[in-house]
Amino acid sequence: MRNYTEITERLKRLNVSIELIGTAHSYPIHQIRLASSADTPRHILITGGMHGDEPAGVEAVLQFLERNNSTLLKEFSFLVIPCINPYGYVHNTRETLGDIDINRAFETGDIAEVAIIKKALGQNQFSLAIDFHEDYDATGFYLYEGKRDEKYIGPDLATAAKTIGPMDPDDPGEDAPDLAEGVYKVATSWGTQGLTPYLLHFHSEHVIISETPTVWQLEQRAALHLTILDTALKIISEST
């Protein structure tokens, strides 16, 4: 079993305001807001820990919060949820209590974690939402992208990510059309059951799922997530 207190202790050491947004199965779920100095900032959502046996996403979110983001905050504001599924994280399981995959449950209203996230999102709209995941079967990275205007940046993200590690050679399937090698479109067939398609439909004009292979070391996986995030923000910044 992992120690969830280590996450909360790292959050407490940050010089930021931490908001308790709910409790699921006795575990607190937190969010952090990083405010921009811009008059009209672009709003970014960063999430990790959807699946409890994918710790690299949580680590990447914590490293993002622990680093100096002052340059980014001149243009962007951030809503950050480090660990959506603390029960799964502690017990090293994909699912939450009751063997429920939260990432297949956003069309329901009776799952504690889903209700907490939906309430936290409120009426917020984001320029980009990125969800950090990992894949036990993969040998390299890949990513999914959804964009309402269909001006995809995934191929550029993949190019940047190759500086961290190789791309996975296998297609993950799941009816996700290819946008480029290792880059797949968030499929309409997914509906809104998963967090990312739910966000694309209701809360964000642009979504990304970053997938790293569990066979890599934790630091390499976290570095890849942050490279994809930083590259996406750089492209967004340069697009106007």
Which stretches are low in confidence, meaning pLDDT under 50 for 5 or more residues running?
none
The CATH level-2 architecture is identified as: 3-Layer(aba) Sandwich
Total number of distinct structural domains = 1
Query: What does the largest sheet look like?
Result: 9 strands, mixed
What CATH calls the topology is Aminopeptidase
Strand pairing plus helix content: what structural class?
A: alpha/beta
> How confident is the prediction overall: mean pLDDT?
95
- The count of helical stretches stands at 7
Count of strand segments: 9
CATH class: Alpha Beta
What is the terminal separation in angstroms?
Answer: 46 Å
Q: Radius of gyration in whole Å, from Cα? A: 16 Å
Q: What share of the residues lie within helices?
A: 25-40%
Strand order, largest beta sheet: 1-2-4-3-5-9-6-8-7
**In the CATH hierarchy, what is the superfamily?**
Zn peptidases
Q: Which range does the strand content fall in? A: 15-25%
Explain what you see.
The chain has a 9-stranded mixed beta sheet, with helices on both faces. It has one domain (5-238): 3-Layer(aba) Sandwich (Aminopeptidase). Helix 2 (55-66) crosses helix 7 and helix 5 (154-161) crosses helix 7 (218-238). The longest helix is centred in the last third of the chain and has 21 residues, at 218-238. The N and C termini lie far apart (46 Å). The chain has 240 residues and is an alpha/beta fold. The protein has helices spanning 5-12, 55-66, 86-91, 112-121, 154-161, 195-202, 218-238, and strands spanning 18-24, 27-34, 42-47, 76-81, 128-135, 142-147, 178-180, 183-185, 206-213. It is globular.
